Predict the 3D structure of the following.
Amino acid sequence: MRNIKARYIWISVAVAFLAAIGLIIGVTYTKGNMTTFVIVLIAIVFIYMTIAIQIASAKTFRYKAKKIVYPKRNYSFSVEDFDSLLKQKGYKPRTTPYGMSYLRVDALNAYKVVLIKNAQKYFNPEENEQASSPNKSLEKCQKFIGFEIFLDYDEETLNKLPDFNIQGNNIYYSGLYKQEKQLCCPNYIEPKEEFINLYQSILEDLELKTIEEQN
């Protein structure tokens, strides 16, 4: 029944309702075992109507969530080798099971870039993976900005990426994915005043240029 269209189920409910009325009227003309038999039929019809109405209602009034339209931003880049580029800019690399992580600490600010080369390992870490020891250079940092760049992704990853973009009092984080000669941010958040310089700095480190939208 769950594969049947809602309108056909509603039609069957209407037919069952008419049948129930007929049986109720008919039971007054029966005697003995026939009366019992008709009463059982009435009960079966009402049970069917109850189940059918629930299924039809669920199909008819099913909630359809509206797709959220996020503000997007694209960046162009000219240097394919982000690894060499980040090392040149003073980022310290760390190898991870899913790719590479780079960190640069400048006074009270921390900059982090993560290159995800294996999305499956990123979202499904192995149990025996040891957590990295805390970086003492981060203890005095007051502001933190990070880009997570997916070089490997599928449709499920793209659906999750908007949630990677967050901004708080001390943190600005953005999830992006590489598409040809662009890095795409599926949920761009305008940096607050206290993060503008950090945001511009991490763009310069990656040598990214904002692609202006054409009207």
Summary: The CA atoms of residues 6 and 61 lie 10 Å apart. The mean pLDDT is 87. The radius of gyration is 31 Å. Helices lie at 6-27, 33-60, 82-88, 119-123, 155-160, 193-205.
